[in-house]
Amino acid sequence: MVLVLSCNLSYGKVLFVCDPYPPFTYEREGKLHKGVIIELLAEILIGISEYETKSIEWHTALKLLEKGRADITGPLFKTLERSEYLVYTEPLYLERFSICYLSENSESKFSNITNIVELYNEKVGVVKDFYYGEELNDAIRRNYVRAVIVKYASTNLKILLRGRVDAAIFNETVVRNLISSNPDVAGKVECSSVPIDPMQLHFGISKKSVLLDDLDLINARILDLKSKSYLKKLRDKYSLDRLKISRGDQYITD
């Protein structure tokens, strides 16, 4: 399959904004220089636009997109609030959630949770401003879950290891990467799937961005790359399989 892309380089570079969120984005000197999403961005914008990146707080990134001062971000889940100022691309892939706990507590209730209600009154580490789906986010807002809110996923892992929380919730790609980057942690932490339906991750494009002129082409490129398993290869590249995520007696490794 050959894709013929229009070339709108005349409108200059577009701006990608996001916070550092390995393995999706890695920061260096205020820019996001590598990661799953950065490599994917480079591929889908070939022949469409040059781009630059800026590492910025997630809340601020969304504000810039809302005001039209940035063009694109990702990966992110769809929410009604964001849909007011973002247009979502074709889905990139399904993301699952994992709840992690110390291996010494492997007989704990966290090893086989089947309902969000089972997290009520538990002290659980979560990342600030992260969307875990309406049910869990609502439970956190209402303090049904005693959330310890941290800024970064890496901090979430640290507070778990230090015993400051009973468990910590991550998206699966991120926790795989964290364990791969810290192999000495692998034997200390176990994870099981959180009973939240997997959700699609997308790029989000500002409704005020010139990139919308090429939305059909961007979506065509995403679908083409997915058909070639390019996204899976990127995830595998940045998330070595040093951690098994259990769901009952099954292991999720795909």
Automatic annotation (TrEMBL):
Could you tell me which PANTHER family the record lists for this protein? Answer: ABC TRANSPORTER SUBSTRATE-BINDING PROTEIN (PTHR35936:SF25), MEMBRANE-BOUND LYTIC MUREIN TRANSGLYCOSYLASE F (PTHR35936)
Full protein name: Solute-binding protein family 3/N-terminal domain-containing protein
Keywords from the UniProt entry: Signal
Origin species, per record, is: Halobacteriovorax marinus
All copies of the Solute-binding protein family 3/N-terminal domain together span: 14-242
Q: Does the keyword Cell membrane apply?
A: no
Origin: domain of life: Bacteria
